[in-house]
Amino acid sequence: MYKTPVSVLVVIHTPDRQVLLLERADHPGYWQSVTGSQNEGETLLQTAVREVAEETGLDATRYQMAEWNVQNEYEIYEEWRWRYAPGVTHNTEHVFGLLLPKPVPVSVAAREHLNFVWLSWREAAEKVFSSSNAEAIRKLAADRSGGRA
Fold first, then answer.
1. Residue 33, class by beta-carbon neighbours within 10 Å (0-12 exposed, 13-18 middle, 19+ buried)?
2. For the domain that residue 97 is a member of, what is the CATH number?
């Protein structure tokens, strides 16, 4: 079964803009926020909640989740195109934020991630491999209230 070329990016952060990053198991050294493809029949919010649970063990419904009304379309890396139907080359990513009161330890999904780290937004934006992920983290920092979910 092929992946749907629609995904979510969930920036998990604290009010003082510390950001959770996960290190990819299939690419050690590649750090990212929670991300994943939408399953058939899911809303984008359901996808975001499911991916947070799968990748971190956190129950996103216990915290403040918000859709940021940001969509990114990007070309799927060649090495990952086999996961999609033949001819699919682009993905549409929908950005969410999940506000936690403070950094907490998470349980990474061993087949997806090797490690996690909480970093300041500046460090996180520099560390992620994806430009859309870095841009989302910078948007978080641009919000003066610090409470953006």
1. buried
2. 3.90.79.10
